[in-house]
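Supplementary Data S3. Sequence and structure tokens for construct A.
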Amino acid sequence: MVIKTDELPAAAPADSAREHGSQAGGKGRPGAAELPSVMLLNGDCPESLEKEGAAEPPRENGLDEAEPGDETTGQEVIVIQDTGFSVKILAPGIEPFSLQVSPQEMVQEIHQVLMDREDTCHRTCFSLHLDGNMLDHFSELRSVEGLQEGSVLRVVEEPYTVREARIHVRHVRDLLKSLDPSDAFNGVDCNSLSFLSVFTDGDLGDSGKRKKGLEMDPIDCTPPEYILPGSRERPLCPLQPQNRDWKPLQCLKVLTMSGWNPPPGNRKMHGDLMYLFVITAEDRQVSITASTRGFYLNQSTAYHFNPKPASPRFLSHSLVELLNQISPTFKKNFAVLQKKRVQRHPFERIATPFQVYSWTAPQAEHAMDCVRAEDAYTSRLGYEEHIPGQTRDWNEELQTTRELPRKNLPERLLRERAIFKVHSDFTAAATRGAMAVIDGNVMAINPSEETKMQMFIWNNIFFSLGFDVRDHYKDFGGDVAAYVAPTNDLNGVRTYNVVDVEGLYTLGTVVVDYRGYRVTAQSIIPGILERDQEQSVIYGSIDFGKTVVSHPRYLELLERTSRPLKILRHRVLNDRDEEVELCSSVECKGIIGNDGRHYILDLLRTFPPDLNFLPVPGEELPEECARAGFPRAHRHKLCCLRQELVDAFVEHRYLLFMKLAALQLMQQKASQLETSSSLENGGPSSMESKPEDTTGPEAGSEEESSSASGLAKVKELAETIAADDGTDPRSREVIRNACRAVGSISSTAFDIRFNPDIFSPGVRFPESCQDEVRDQKQLLKDAAAFLLSCQIPSLVKDCTEHAVLPMDGATLAEVMRQRGINMRYLGKVLELVLRSPARQQLDHVYKIGIGELITRSAKHIFKTYLQGVELSGLSAAISHFLNCFLSSYPNPVAHLPADELVSKKRSKRRKNRPPGAADNTAWAVMTPQELWRNICQEAKNYFDFSLECETVDQAVETYGLQKITLLREISLKTGIQVLLKEYSFDSRHKPAFTEEDVLNIFPVVKHVNPKASDAFHFFQSGQAKVQQGFLKEGCELINEALNLFNNVYGAMHVETCACLRLLARLHYIMGDYAEALSNQQKAVLMSERVMGIEHPNTIQEYMHLALYCFASSQLSTALSLLYRARYLMLLVFGEDHPEMALLDNNIGLVLHGVMEYDLSLRFLENALAVSTKYHGPKALKVALSHHLVARVYESKAEFRSALQQEKEGYTIYKTQLGEDHEKTKESSEYLKCLTQQAVALQRTMNEIYRNGSSANIPPLKFTAPSMASVLEQLNVINGILFIPLSQKDLENLKAEVARRHQLQEASRNRDKAEEPMATEPEPEPEPSGGPDLGSELQAAKDPSPSVQG
């Protein structure tokens, strides 16, 4: 619910000259926060934040070019009042300039700014002096004496060391490559792609310079053929359009380390640090000496060493200045390059926190690059540059950051920022190490054992492979269990990290899937390698429950986690039949490291087992499970329920508990006699059956609807019960009964916990606990039934109502996981979709589900297929697999690597090859028929779903899939990168892929995502405030949240992206289009960089940006953004998706606005067809669609068609809303108006027929739509509806949010109004007599499907 005011002052420009300003100066602008702000919660709810995604903090300023290891104390504390000041910088050779700084920045950050500025970027080795005193790199500015407004800082060149010289060369190389996207395509150094600037021509922020569109310049609006509705072709090349800036200006041909390095002893004593070899663009070859004083030319050649200076004898402190001297081309091109570099948006160049890989890339030229070559061989194998001469002790770093104090906000920010930074660094190092292990680059610590059993240590990280070593998992499913255990363990680590108990430590854990192998990377507990595991474990069991030990300190620490994690403290028997008390599963081991910290590891069974996939002899599952064909034997016995499911189940039981208690209290009040007798007769058994009945599918869905109102009543009840508690024995009795009924472990309060060891093979429980064990077994069965009877149906219901809109496999998986449904239930979800009465409206979910099922089954097969391929056959094997999977060519033949080179003698098979070096060629005999047979079998075995297809073409035909979409899904899941070109999948004469088309294979990485908790709370409370109507406060809170997110995560992160999107929306509603554009542009760039250029979220962001561009009258930009969104959507899913209706309505309206009527109709009519399919022919959305089509026909003066369309709409309004509703009246007015125009036209025609050319014709009024009317319709379809309110009522509204009922009275006299007020248009716009706030807040809480954010 929203208030918009036109008279507000525009906010201060988003980021002024200094985009990288500190938070205090930049983001938390008081100016912006003054605006009474508002927001529509279009699905920008916390859900969008739960996304697995992540990023590491390269700070707000886009300047993290230097190694970001040593900035753990940058802009920690956010004190918005602590205003910045400006200092003057004097650097050699340029005019002095002033720089805005803030007191909590560090001196080092000024260094970063200078290394990024166009005129000082070539300096790296300098210090800053104030009044002749050198400033310390790591001190905060506020601690520098005498530093104030107007102080002058001198840049003083310092002598080089070998390290500084290397850093300088690296920095120069980075400047030369700053526009080159190859690092992003290759997935290195946290670079990733962004294409927004290609579509906006960089004219978003500076629209003042060339405002396009308003003068109605002829805009070319025709989209490429493949974007038009109904087009069948899905090209791949437009996914990564060629950016003009990428054809980089060549400054040098070669810059590399010379072969004469390192300098001999006597030259060292002359100050030589290293030698460089350069070939200039003019083809001049020169040799350069880096000395302590700077760079100069020497007289060496490729074969002759002569270190004497050459002429011109020019010594320069910076390599760039030297090159400027000797190469005119370098001088010219380098200047142009830097100009372009600083014009780019900082978000296009800041590093992301975690690497994002691209699944396509164009053919790139491989150029010489000294820094890359050096990185590959020397420094990076285990040494990080910014820690001189030592490896990082990851475990120490990870644990020390957790120990940082967290009493107040600044401390918590510092701590969260440090945790996040270390985690993202650790993830990057672990990924690099895992790839090195599989590529055979690391020596095993047990080299004599066979490959599968080898373990590795690299860079202080321990690596193990996902195979069942020493029959550890024999009872659980062998290798299959060993493969899933690491991800279960990672989920456990993630959970314990969130609970964050002081004194309890987990290992840094990253799981990497690469080339068909699963590698677990863990930080190393100090001392663990020196002693035997048996001695170290003082809590838990190393043999799955035969020998079990416990420890009082561990029990005390784990007890603190038991409530949030719902884990029951329980007793088990060990091999000597002694009772041992535990507060976790038996596999969870406690080890005290040499550093005295209490570590827990092997958290693979943190959550209770999933009985639907764990058949236990002699145990019956509830009837709902049996009906669905459970229990089914799974491949391994480590299936557990997701944490989301446990939470949902407990919440569900809590509601039930309250209802039961309420019922009994009411019965008591009615007649105490009856109550007591019924309780005695019924006893717990009848109560036991009660919760089960209520979890039937029907009850489940009915409960969903009632739960919102039910919760409020329940809360009241809870209070009354609590109040009675001590005094009234009867209410105590009530609570005891209710507790027993819902399976609570306590009889005086609601408390449900699970024993994770129930049904664990090999674990025995003491006799005395038999009752407890029986109850726990029942609870697990109920939870398994709850998943089937409540969670899956509620997911399908949400999809039917379009409350969630999955667009590809990843978003579907995310929607399932949020509801606690594991992916192994995908087959069950699809069965329910098929049986659903609204099957038509679930078509998109069904297609995505089938695609996901096929690609996941193919991924399982691909994994084992790849393990049998040696490195030299990798691209041949992958292209062969893709041909069998996607190409219509009936018998593709694999090229064996032996084709290229013939080896003289075949060496005997060695026992200890690196893991990825099998040399069999079994993979070459796979055929498409065999692969698809296996896929169908895998789908049946794993997901219990029968696919009806024997080839890829049948699958495409039967299920309406797209091959390009399947290629995207399989590539993302397996890490394949293919060449960007058009593949002829359907050719029956040649295979679609050759081995040249497979460019790379990347790791798929799973890791922990540390959260910024304070920022997240600010974000949530900001959303809540806006929903309650406290708009100004809401906007301030969200601005503050953005600040805190930046502080913890740095500039790039998924959550920051959601924050920016929301701010943009608020500013838009308040009429501040420039600010909306600036924020939304950042959101789009960030989404492209952090989530991927064609991620569904990016598509959404493009649509929002297009709307704000249109409002700022940048029409051609708005169109090209919408066309981009449509192209991405066609690639990711296809045309037949409910979101496509919204997109096409947007495109159609903009085209209508620029008077491209025929084109406009193609899009609007497609939108009408899609809306009718997904919302049913009687939906209000469809009525709106009819009206939009009618308007275009009216503009074309085709009144008959217009009347026909508007009548359809009128009928819907009349049946749905009744005669008297404002919408129905509007529609009937419009019909009258159309009829009059039709009659007038007919008169004119008749006049012409009668009198021929001499007819006296009154001029016809054809209406070209006004921009305002188009914008109004755009707002309506995008879920922003303005309802007029006067200024006085605005005040009232704010005051009376609490007393809503008075609004009803006030709203009568509210028609004459100047100020619009926006609300959600769902379920349907209220009459402008003033909305009932209640229903409105409801609308804000469940966003309309059309505007899922």
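Construct B, processed identically:
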Amino acid sequence: MSGSVDVKQHYSKKKSSQKQRSHYESISHHSSRSCVSQHSYAAHKSSHAITTTGVQQSFVQLEKGSEFIPSKLLPPRVKKYLAMDPDTNELIGYVVPVFRTSHEFSRGLVEVQEEVKEEGVGQVAMRNLFSRATSSMETSSMETSSMEMVTVEKKSRKKNIRESAERMQLSKKIEERVELRKKQNSDNLTHPPEFIVRPRGQTVWEGKTVKLHCTVAGWPKPRVAWYKNNVLIDAKTHPDKYTVESNYNMHSLEIKNCDFLDTAQYRASSLNIKGERSCIATVVIKSRKSLEGVESPCCPATHGVTFHADIIESFEVAFGREGETLSLGCTVIVYPTIKRYQPDVVWYRDGVALSESKWVHSHWSGDKATLTLVHLNKEDEGLYTLRVNTKSGFQTHSAYVFVRDEEVELEGVPVAPLDVLCHDANKDYVVVTWKQPAVEGESPILGYLIDRCEVGQHHWAQCNETPVKYARFPVTGLIEGKTYTFRVRAINRAGVSRPSRASDPVTAIDPHDRARHRGPSAPFTGMIKFTEEDATVGVVPGEPTDLVVTEATKSYVVLAWTPPTQRGHEGVMYIVEKCIAGTDCWQRANTGIPVKSPRFALFDLAEGNTYSFRVRCFNSAGVSESSAPTAPITVGDMLDLPAAPGPAVATRNTDTSVVVSWGASKDVKHLVGYYIDHSVVGSNVWTPCNNKPVKETRFVCHGLTTGDLCVFRVKAVNAAGYSATSVESEAVVVKAAIAVSDVPIGVHLVEAARDYMVVGWKEPIVTGGADIRGYFVDYRTVKAGFIGQWRELNHKALTTTSYKAENLKENYFYQFQVRAVNMVGISEASLPSMALECKEYTLAKPGVPRCLHVLEVRNTSVVLLWEPPTFDGRSPVNGYYVDLKEAAPGEDWKGANNKATKLKYMKVNGLIAGRSYVFRVRAQNLAGVGEPSTVLGPVLALTMPGTHEIVLDVDDDGVISMIFECSKMAEGSKFVWSKNYKAMTDTSRLTIVTEGTIFNEPSLEDLGIFSCEVTNTDGVSASYNLTEAVIPFKTEMAMDLLEKGRVRFWTQVEKFTSDCKVEYVFNDVIVENGKKYTMNFDKNTGIIEMFMDSLMVTDEGTFTFNLIDGKAKGSTSLVLIGEVTQSVFLPGPHFVDYLDFEVTPECNVLLKATVRFYNRTSSCLFFGLQLCRKDAGMYEVKLKDDRGKDISLFNLTDAGTETLLSWFYCIQLIYYGSTAPLLWFHCVLELLSSSNDSSDRISYSDRVNEPTEKDKGKYTINISDGKDGVKRVCDLSGQGRICAHTHTHTHIKVFLLASYRARVVGGLPDVVTIQEGKSLNLTGNVWGDPTPEVSWLKNDKELVSDERYALKFENGKFASITIASVTPTDSGKYALLVKNKYGTEAGEFTVSV
């Protein structure tokens, strides 16, 4: 038999009396608040003393004229607060201790600030005291009877449970009464905040989490804020760093992942209408690095510093495909720069902070934030936001990432579902949900297949035999304690889709068991309970409760219930029964395996039938009673398909995007989102704009083709399926919307006098898609550093790009700004001009050039244009100088031209792709060079994607035209053609069409640079230099020697018509087909040929082919004059190179001559393996045929042998950086230096560095094999003339074994082009003995191996460099530099990102 024992202990009456008296005395300072006089308090003490000493006073009159109540009927708590007159035994007052009750009750009394009717203190006390008199009678009598004794009472378990329930019900009533009193309480109890529990300072290690707590009381309820070094902490700005909580007057601040910067004084400030209170706690963060000698200041250096963060080089809208890897990056500048301070960088997707996972990796390098999405999936689609948090604020940048479906393996099958999630996991049951894909395939989706896989294994098991169409499925039959992942596949008539991304792992465990084992303990009630639990054997469980149907579809019905309270410690299982409505026949539903969790899914129910369900539970002791049956449920889908969205409305946005909006679906339940499709008019092919449903009713569709005419439609989706599509939108052209134009540029002074100034400007580069209708000019005065207010000069829009500002004051300075206006509105103001003085120009040197701008920006060049200065000075401007430099700190200006150019444009070459440059121009006259112009730039040297060049074309009629294509046309864009970068005013010789220029009568007057600029674009432009050869040739004229001395002159034309004619000219005389010349023009291949049987000396001169093709002309020539072509006129075979020798690396001697025989060239070779004295003599080679003969001799007599041996054993003196041939020696070397009649032995590898006077002399080398030898002398007494070559360097080295020099022998390309975000790895093969030293250079600056650059040198042969996730800043000129004691070499290559 189980039971319980209650033990109650109390102090004696004497101690209780002393405790009560001390309590009243301790709160005497609150007497003014309770409005109880000292007399009442004394009366109370006396009455209390009389009562406690046993004076016979058995009745109390509560109010005058009222009945006397026996005092024993009043609870002791009431008697404690009655102030009685000891003489008349009448109630004369009440004692109200303000904080007598618990803190929770006191807070409840004062929390409500509603205005209520004010009552006297006596009425308040009366109501509060006697409202619970009846409920406390029994408790008071129990306390009185057990004042000095211990009561032991045994209770059964059932009685104990019943009493617990009664106590809970009583507590609920008390809470309701407390809430009622809150509304009835007045403001007379308000008081300022008071810290009951103060935050405590802490010292922790770096990387830990700190939590500060405090408890604050006060009325009205105070607000608490946290400060760090007197700076307000905004937890919303730093959600990953701080967490602030406030519950039941308990406040906390959590600091996560602490570091040095978190060392500070933290202040909790509480405030209400009565005042403010603060409490400070010091937090010290200790670093383990400080133990290693690294300085770790306890006070951060960021106190009082205001930080500014700017996001530059931000990522744009990105597109990826499933399975690919995508990187997003931004360059972040935080200033001022403080050591060890880094901003908080957080990435978000659709407003949810991203954390590190197997799919998401983020990196912060100090100035670059990168997010890498590994193996993209449709779940990764969304709006990505980079948020950079500093202590002074934050900056954000957002862009959308689209993920396109992977190509399907079988045509017509649906694409994979997405967002597979697990819910309501139990012991053997889990609910799997997913989202339908955007593309169903060639036929509607018939259903979905769910697969599961146990974590740690690779086998996927199908969970459902029949496909389910509802995007929610309960999976049963799981093993308790096992962890699973799930995936989903879609199926239609064409086949099965690829599986979705696997869900997060979920463990099969009963959440109710977890809650029962880990639930919170009951609060201490002042009573110690000893409970003897019932035996677990033999306890029949109670019936389940709260049985409901949570889901009902055509395929299944899901039941849920609450486990029984009475079940002991033994586990229970469940029996589910069903009954057809209208009958009383209950059938067991789970006939196979008992149910372990309070969830169950019933399949194979007849659609349309109505059922009721009930549940029993059982264990080893028996079966419980059945639960209350559910209401009748008809088998069918409880969730309907969503209604079709409202009509789609499409509006233009950019050149590649359109904004689509629509009306929300009406009366839709559990909406998942919307899918948007688009189709090019006439194609009848619908393409999804998003692969992840969106819940908003507005979406920007990116990735469209400029100029396409598209229509859009929308469909809604929920778990039941897809809705019908909306009404299609009206067709809209994909191009940029009309907007306000950019600001005018280049505001400058054109003319100035004593009382007026003429200012000019250039129209905006981007007009906003509409024509500029006019301009407004503003001006302001600048005097002694004070700047006045802007004032309008014209109230009516100007149609010109200049304006005359009149009625100005002489010697005053003015600034001007201009605004442009189009059909949309007025643009922002341009940049103010420099302060211009209103006076006549009298300087000798010219003014500054103006209106600098660039065209034709390419990887290595840019065309810079400018306007002449407003004032020429005392003499006209006769030239200009162009300066440029890289847009980087520390770079110096350098001139682009050494000689002044008279043109007002220049093509600047030699730029490096991917670098930014700034430009300026200076004008020159006879007085000198004037001041430089305003700096233009920075300009990025980079050829934009889709850039085209001007093409010269000749049609079939011989009409010459230049064509320029532009793929970035916007509304209002126009082609503006110019010649030599001047607007073409005389168009009589040309016909200008939309995309080209046609020459009417081509002549020499048409030669020049023709350029075309497209307005309302980002500087799209190109040029073509039209030279005299207007008909393009694939190859210039060439000559071939054929057999028997025949000669062929030929060329090939690139483009021509059938009417093209050729004139064959020799020395300005037209020759015709005849005995000496044979002509041929193959119009299929464009090859023009002229043959001659032989060439004589009289044939020296110029051969020319003149082409006439309608209005087009062209010519090409070949000159045969001088000694260079003399060999061509030799009648027979002859020597091209006469007989000479060559020493091979194997020490063999080759005698070689080069001869020409007909059109072929060959070599005659004689060689001896071991050259000796007996080989001496004269060697002769003869050539002879019927056309002539030629002879070549080589002297190998005594003198000739000495020459050969001298060459064979020679040494070569070269300079650093040169290359020496490989020489082989099998002998002893000895090098002697003879200077000032002294002989010293020196090493063969010695060098003469920076020679001085003492190094002059003769250097001798003796080469001997023990029997014979040779001596060679090098004279370094004079100017150092070596090997008949003179060099300006002073470093000379003797190389005997040049092959030992350090070299880069291969492996490196000349140019590397790589996509941004990819990793670059290059390996170079090096050689040298001894092993060379290896270093890498970027733009002539040495690189150091770090987390950005990984530099390796392995096995003394392979040098590699790896750059992770390249960016445009990695573009540049790189070099692999190898060096040893024999020399240095660099392998250079260019990287373009």
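The mean pLDDT is 76. The two ends are 84 Å apart (CA to CA).
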